[in-house]
Amino acid sequence: YSEETDVLDTIKTLRHRGGRPLNTGSALQYVRANVFTSSAGSRSQQGVPQILILLSGSRSNDNVDTPASALKESGVLILGVGTRNSSREIQRIVSDPSYAQSISEISDLPAVQQQFLSTLGSTGSYVMPVKPTVIAERMTRRDVVFLLDGSDGTRDSFPAMRDFVQRMVDRLNVSDRRDRVSVVQFSREPVAHFYLNTYTTKESVLNTVRGLRHRGGRPLNTGASLQYVRDNVFTASSGSRRLEGVPQLLILLSGGRSFDNIDMPASSLKELGVLTFAVGSRGSDSRELQKISYEPSSALSVTDFANLPTVQEQLFSRINTVREETKTVSPTQIGKTNRVLIHFT
Question: Which of 21, 136, 155, 265 is the most buried (most CB within 10 A)?
Fold first, then answer.
């Protein structure tokens, strides 16, 4: 909504949903991944304060520490109100203990409302310190290629895969001088939906990703597809900036075991300096994904691609550790020199 009256009209019609248990941790992770994003209207990249107000009447059934920390690290200011059953947990979630309010009953909310309005009025002074971090992240350059399993076995899972790519792209700084993105779908044969130099804006990338359709086909030739992205996507003519020292990242989503051999193309990508992250589902071969990945710990697994959000934060955190090599490397040295620095903490 863009009008206050529309917001108020909708709030007046809200109805209690019910349900149990209370998973506050999952809810915090949800708003970080799906609400505080540019595609959902967030203006964080423009320096606009990001504020979350949490009202909770009970203690969470799941862990709140990790998702709360992730929100704070992304610059979200968290304020919270809890009852006698949840006040201590609220203090752990909020950005500062002074932003946690405790009431005996939810019906006592009017007693703390003015204090909340005063806090909101001073948010500019709090949010400003995180802006240098955001600016520093914008200076990072990465070439990111998504390789999606479009075989017959992933027909039902493809919408979840597409949504995963959207969420990942939404958190990248897409532009010609920052992050470039390409998407390739494969089954029997690979097909590039767009290359690293096809689009220069995040909006253009997201619009195309939203329109992706499952291609189908069999068998699943992962090896040939890995070779394809090496020879046709991670190239200067397709927009790769490998020779400039820009990190080359490949994110593979695979729902089954490859019909062809993956060893040679996977090794060839590593020799080129491509950092590969693989995510598999129940039908995948975990050992195969570990061989494909830059290193075994870069292979992740979910029971079903509908559960991709559970590993998305872990994957994005690893991607964010990738930095450009600062020293100059001549083209003749590329095959023998690591082009990417990555630190796992």
Answer: 265
